[in-house]
Every structure is written in structure tokens, then in C-alpha cells.
Amino acid sequence: MLYIFTGDGKGKTTAALGTAMRATGEGRRVLMVQFIKGPWKSGEDEAHKNLAPHFKLVKMGLGFVGILGDTLPRSAHERAAQDALAYAAGEAAGGAWDIIILDEIHNALHLRLIALEKVLDFIRNAAGKTEHIILTGRDAPRELIDMADLVTEMRDIKHPYDKGFKAKRGLEY
Questions:
Q1: What is the pLDDT of residues 122-152, one digit of tens each?
Q2: pTM of the predicted model over 0.90
Q3: Which of 4, 54, 70, 85 is the most exposed place for a label (fewest CB within 10 A)?
Q4: Please, what are the domains in the chain?
Q5: Cis ω before 141 (30° cut-off from 0)
Q6: % helix / strand / coil in the chain, to the nearest 5?
Q7: Integer Cα distance of 22 and 158 in angstroms
């Protein structure tokens, strides 16, 4: 089954992590590959170790692309996203994972760091080797939404950031 968590609201990665936690509690094996996210620390960086060997988190992104002080060339971000997808494809081919999560993949697509056709190839190839694939991030492309079995859109209605509050460690990252 293909799951999509998208939208401009908070909770996409959180929903994927909640699914992972629930699945590992039933003995399933879950791989999460993070696109975009990478250089900064977040709560899941430590928490995932407590769920090993059933849960593995691999951060492969290089951070925000072209904003908030990013000085890396675009080509470095493109290579990181392509490497992340290739890594996930290799892991899927091995058939060891019940669930594979591609976190922030929609953002990588929206930023044109990777081609949609490559993601579609991944889904087609992984579908017979893993039970569930979860894709997260803003701006899910229509093609993925149309082929998904479950789509949840997180919509921003109200957020403390709107009042000038910064993201809180352990809650939002």
C-alpha cells in the first residue's frame, strides 16, 4: 500500500513516525530515509535507536535548499537526494523491510532535486518487496496522490510560529 502524508500543516513526519512506532511494536521492520533533513539534530535521531533493530533511520539530506543560510551548491543537494533514493531502492530490493518511509520526498520533488519518474520507478520496484511505502512532505504531486491508497493532508489552521514562537526541540523537530 502507498501512503501519502502531505500539506502545509505540521505532522507529516510525525504521522510517519507514529506509524513506524506502531509497526515495530508488532514486530515489523521499518526503514525511514530522510530527504532534505540532515545536518541538524532532531528527537528522532536518538529515539530511533530505542526501536532498533526493527526501525532504522537514515538521514541523507543536506538541509534546506537555498534558504536560511544554505551555501551549498544546488548540485550537492541534487546528488544527496539522488543518493537517498538510490539507497532506498537498494534497501527495498533486499526485501528486508515491511515499511519504507521516504520522508520529505515531496519537497525534493517540488524543488526538482529528483525526477518524478525516478520516484515512480522506486514505487513500482519496491511494491512487491515491501508491504507499505509512506511518502511525506509538502506539495505531493498529483500523480502520486492519484496512485496512493491513503492520502492525508495536514492543513495549517493555527500555529505558534504565526505569533513569533520558534519551533520547540522535542516537539517539532
A1: 999 999 899 999 999 999 999 999 999 999 9
A2: yes
A3: 70
A4: 2-145 (3.40.50.300)
A5: no
A6: 40, 15, 45
A7: 28
